[in-house]
Amino acid sequence: MQDGQRIMGRVAMPYDVFAANCPTRLVLDRLADKWALLVLERLRGEAVRFNQLRRDVEGVSQKVLSQTLKRLERDGLVARTVYPTVPVTVEYALTPLGLNLADTVSAFAHWAERNIEAILAAQAAYDGREGAGA
Amino acid sequence: MQDGQRIMGRVAMPYDVFAANCPTRLVLDRLADKWALLVLERLRGEAVRFNQLRRDVEGVSQKVLSQTLKRLERDGLVARTVYPTVPVTVEYALTPLGLNLADTVSAFAHWAERNIEAILAAQAAYDGREGAGA
DNA sequence: TCCATCGGTATCCAAAAGATACTATGTGAC
DNA sequence: GTCACATAGTATCTTTTGGATACCGATGGA
């Protein structure tokens, strides 16, 4: 399944997302987050300030946005820049690593947009069967 | 905002993941789930039975796996087949729609595997700054 | 003076995740 | 006969998380 990959001459452990103790699980864990995905998608192409982000990503609360950004920053996916303007300005932007990921995330988001109707139809069919059966 | 969408006609794509009331949010919500992603990835290429899945996707509990599969089935991404063998056999497989998505998921998982070291390094750097600064 | 904006933190509560135990049915071992 | 195991889940309980709300200091405008 996973051939041993070598990174910088070092023989790395063959990362396996299915293994409970694999560090890739951490990544998956962090990225399997609605808000993180939306933030990454929103940050594609331009830096955005905190409250702007809060307005654009509808439905996110300050606390959750704050936490999400902090995690993304810790993971090296987002860079936080503080400008000492009069009300302090904080700008968030994708790092190269984050930009790289955001492309994958974008594929995800667009898949959702393309296939939402099929999913809604499947849900309706499923609920119909359940409702009739019960 | 998305008043003009036609279900049958496949006209434009008025869907916007950033809008709180957009149905794509439902998809994102469902898919932004660690276990769902792992299940989809595991189901690529072959049908798997419940307990086998449970063993393969390390760390998942029965309850969560059961819930996850039920949701994926409702979304039309996974098909559930019951064989009336002696201890009943239940097989889960990707639907065409699910397979389509699984390819995107796979890109995600492989991104994680490729970039895990960069992320771990970023985390270490971040934690070092935090530890030293505070 | 009062209220707004900036970028957050603190607090509380509801919802979800996770661990554990249990169900039913049937097989093989002892 | 009955003990233990397998199948595929459900039921229950606890812990963790997510989300809503309130609040913070500083500043500027009506």
Compact description:
The structure is a homodimer of 134-residue chains. The first copy, chain A, has a single domain (13-133), classed as Orthogonal Bundle (Arc Repressor Mutant, subunit A).
Total count of strands of chain A: 5
Strand order, sheet with most strands of chain A:
3-5-4
User: Spans of chain A with pLDDT under 50 lasting ≥5 residues?
Assistant: 1-11
Say which CATH homologous superfamily of chain A is assigned.
Winged helix-like DNA-binding domain superfamily/Winged helix DNA-binding domain
Distance between the first and last residues' Cα of chain A: 42 Å
* Strand content bin of chain A: 5-15%
> Can you give the mean pLDDT of chain A?
84
Question: Can you lay out the helices and strands and say which pair or pack?
Answer:
The structure is a homodimer of 134-residue chains.
Chain A: E1 6-7, E2 10-11, H1 24-31, H2 34-43, E3 48-49, H3 50-56, H4 62-74, E4 78-83, E5 89-94, H5 96-133
Antiparallel strand pairs in A: 1-2, 3-5, 4-5
Helix pairs in contact in A: 2-5
Chain A binds a DNA duplex (30 and 30 nucleotides) through residues 49-51, 54, 60-67, 82, 85-90.
Give structural attributes.
homodimer; 134 residues; alpha+beta; Arc Repressor Mutant, subunit A; 5 strands; DNA-binding
Q: What does it look like?
A:
The structure is a homodimer of 134-residue chains. By secondary structure, the first copy, chain A, is of the alpha+beta class. Chain A has one domain (13-133): Winged helix-like DNA-binding domain superfamily/Winged helix DNA-binding domain (Arc Repressor Mutant, subunit A), CATH 1.10.10.10. Chain A is 57% helix and 13% strand. Chain A has 5 helices and 5 strands, in the order ββααβααββα. Chain A has helices at 24-31, 34-43, 50-56, 62-74, 96-133, and strands at residues 6-7, 10-11, 48-49, 78-83, 89-94. In chain A, strands 3-5-4 form a 3-stranded antiparallel beta sheet. Chain A has a two-stranded antiparallel ribbon with strand order 1-2. The longest helix of chain A is centred in the C-terminal third of the chain and has 38 residues, at 96-133. The first copy, chain A, is globular. Mean pLDDT of chain A is 84; it is low at 1-11. The structure holds a DNA duplex (30 and 30 nucleotides).
